[in-house]
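Memo to structure team: turn this sequence into structure tokens by end of day. - J.P.
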Amino acid sequence: MKIVSWNVNGLRAVMKKGFGDILDTLDADIVCLQETKAQDDQVHAALEGIRGYHVYSNAALRKGYSGVAILSRSEPLAVNAGIGREDHDQEGRVLTAEYPDFYLLTVYTPNSGNELVRLPYREAWDREFLAFANKLARKKPLLLCGDFNVAHREIDIARPKANYNKSAGYTQKEIDGMDRLIAAGFVDVFRHLHPGIVKYSWWSYRAGARGKNVGWRIDYFLATKSLVQRHLEEAEIHTEIMGSDHCPVSVRLR
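Reply from structure team:
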């Protein structure tokens, strides 16, 4: 089973950039999307020509903002939106699909914003998201994927010193949030398989950052240890795939 996660930075925008062909190239059993920037009906309308997938969406109340979706070749046992907290769930950031052997959760973690104005909200989110993930993981193995909006270690960001505690996505408080996920037993599967490889998943649109590979690794798959030990085969970052300021990341399970 191949599972792909991609922050598309606007589903309708990426549809105009060859999303259907990219989907064929990725050949995934499940595709998780973040930052769809579309209401649920708009997601279904945009994907109307895409065949072979069941489509599920969780949109924000605010139009054109946030939003996540799951495209799955096999029909999940159940699909649920949000984490059960109204203050967070109105932003359309989480969608969970239950399969016979595991849960799959896709997340678009809040960005702390310019001048870190949303960092206190982000800290609250991190605590409550971890509690929700732990609750699911007690029931069956859990695979988390999406844009976590944090570069976890220096290896995950091209310019760590210039950004540390200055830029959203690389403050100690955000790093601490990822540390707590790891401490709770979730494994960063790309780093688990590729401990020394430098690869990024997001590049600013400014100053030709992608061409210069001045990037950040902020898109992850995290998995419970039992899932990693029994089922994980590979984890990849598809830097060659364009269409968004993020590139897709993927795992293959046996």
